[in-house]
Specification:
Length: 325
């Protein structure tokens, strides 16, 4: 199968949209009115029930999410954040409406639908210049996302960061989880924690990686997956780069870093924090995997070992795959 056929197969199958949902047809949602088409979306890890829907008299598609009342407060914050992202010209879903669904205890969130394919699937078969370009566009989007400051009165980033990492390190120690990579990230986290002092606290997407970036016609169409948002140092968003994105495309990773910095290679302060947060992200991933009793632990440890190797056990703060252009 050639690359074009592979791409067509991915585009047709990896969006997770299939079948019809007749029970949604005819439902009214203000201000758009009547749903005339509805398709379930299976992709993603959210507990929400998700549907791609169309409304009578409107072009384009929309994303309808149904969720339980227990998530209402968090969803309101997400809805507000999407409004703020629009004001900052971030390419993401446009929030339309939110409210109580017909079923008791169920609520809905309606946003615009972004057409395309997630970067995790399309980048590995894309030309190298496109991988780099999408990465640079992602970095530009990330720089705009980080312009949303944390609410006043929030606990400092360094206090929250230190408390969380100490808790996660305790999990690794108590379970006896170790490897060369885990030892390297543990030493890095403990030795460089002071770098977080006086760092700013802003809106964090929380899962900024290729799986949550939509590509259409060779360009980044938008950012999705804001449901795991948090607040913290804007550079903490890079903690997933060496663990997740690196396995998809190192050119994308290079592009994201350059795009975030306006096309220029970052300074030494960035690299020091990048290395710390890469190590912190690894500790968090292992602790979470252990806590969930996941069968993926060996795969996760291999990923952490690769991260440490990229940094020569953190003797280098800049990863070996980074290519200054």
């Amino acid at each position: 199968m050639n690359d074009l056929n592979k791409a067509n197969k991915i585009i047709s199958s990896q969006d997770g949209v299939s079948g019809h949902v007749p029970e949604l047809l005819g439902r009214d949602i203000a201000p758009l009115g009547e749903i005339i088409e509805a398709y379930p979306i299976q992709a993603g890890v959210s507990a929400d029930r998700k549907y791609k829907v169309h409304f009578y008299g409107y072009d384009g598609a929309y994303l309808l999410r149904l969720f339980e009342e227990s998530a209402l407060a968090f969803k309101r914050s997400e809805f507000e954040a999407l409004h703020r992202m629009q004001a900052m010209t971030v390419h993401c879903s446009r929030p339309i409406a939110m409210g109580r669904w017909e079923t008791e205890g169920t609520y809905f969130l309606l946003v615009s639908y972004i057409d395309g394919t997630d970067a995790q699937h399309i980048l590995p078969i894309s030309p190298k210049p496109q991988q780099l370009r999408v990465g640079m566009q992602a970095g530009e989007e990330l720089s705009r996302i980080s312009c949303y400051p944390a609410p006043e009165g929030m606990e400092s980033w360094t206090d929250r960061y230190v408390r969380r990492t100490e808790r996660e390190l305790d999990v690794l120690k108590s379970k006896g989880i170790t490897s060369r990579g885990i030892e390297a990230v543990t030493v890095k986290v403990r030795s460089s924690a002071s770098l977080t002092e006086a760092r700013p606290s802003v809106f964090l997407h929380g899962s900024f990686e290729p799986a949550n970036l939509i590509v259409h016609q060779g360009r980044l169409a938008g950012v999705v997956g804001f449901g795991g948002f948090d607040w913290g140092d804007p550079l903490y968003e890079f903690s997933r780069l060496g663990l997740y994105s690196r396995g998809v495309s190192t050119l994308f990773c290079t592009g994201q870093i350059l795009g975030y910095h306006g096309g220029q290679e970052p300074d030494s302060e960035f690299w020091e924090l990048y290395a710390l947060y890469a190590a912190s992200g690894a500790v968090s991933l292992v602790a979470k995997t252990v806590g969930n009793k996941s069968s993926e632990l060996n795969t996760v440890i291999e990923r952490v070992d690769r991260l440490a190797e990229d940094h020569e056990d953190f003797a280098n703060v800049r990863p070996s795959w980074f290519a200054a252009l």
